[in-house]
Amino acid sequence: VVGGLAVTGRVRSALRTLAQRAASAGLRTELLLGEPTWILPQHRGRLLQIVRKLREAPFAGLHLDLEPNMLDDSPAGTARLLPEFLETLRAVKAVSPWPVACSLHPRYLTEPTGGAALGDRLTELGVAPTLMIYVANPQRVVAIARPIMARFPRLRFGVALSIEHTLDREESLFSFPEAERASRIAAVEQALAGGNFSGLALQPSLPWMAQWLERR
pLDDT digit string (tens) for 43-70? Predict the structure, then answer.
């Protein structure tokens, strides 16, 4: 059982059907797993168990949203947790049949971890990061992302923007009119296009998704 769902042949068949339909629409189907306690050694095995249970599912990739700051956002906590975060990524890479990516706050990429910056360690592991830049001003998003992407040119970077109703207007695109929201998203994409930029990820909340579905 994974997340309350028995991984039966019927479930695997349904996942294959979903992946095939997504592919026909030009979409990739990835497995997203998120729980910060999986960073810790005593809970890491639970994450590995889930990955092993689903390894035959037809996903195109595995994305981990573990967020060390959810456990301890202090400098001491960061120094303690980032090595454990890397150990979790190494362990997952060893059992995952898919490429592995992760979401991270931008400040973590330059943090020293085992004698090198975390970005260098991710390069060695072959784990692609998505920078969680929850800022509504596109110029500010680009100003944050560009120096990090330039410092680690061998990493492929995604950038995540927020469309969540729970965040302030300065952090989320939720409260902007649709045309303005689209313009700001396009401005970020155009400014970062090329090089080691892999694309944008949008983090929505249920109210925005409900609005989006109503218009379709």
Answer: 999 999 999 988 888 889 999 999 999 9
Helix (H) or strand (E) holding 39: none
Residue 174 CA to residue 164 CA, distance in Å, equals 6
Q: What are the beta bridge partners of residue 160?
A: 132, 201
**Which residues lie closer than 8 Å to 25 by C-beta, 6 or more apart?**
none
Contact residues for 207 (Cβ-Cβ < 8 A; gap 6+)? 165, 174
How many residues are there in the chain?
216
Could you give the strand order of the β-sheet that contains 197-204, starting from the edge strand earlier in sequence?
Answer: 30-33, 61-64, 100-104, 128-132, 157-163, 197-204
Q: Tell me the pTM.
A: 0.86
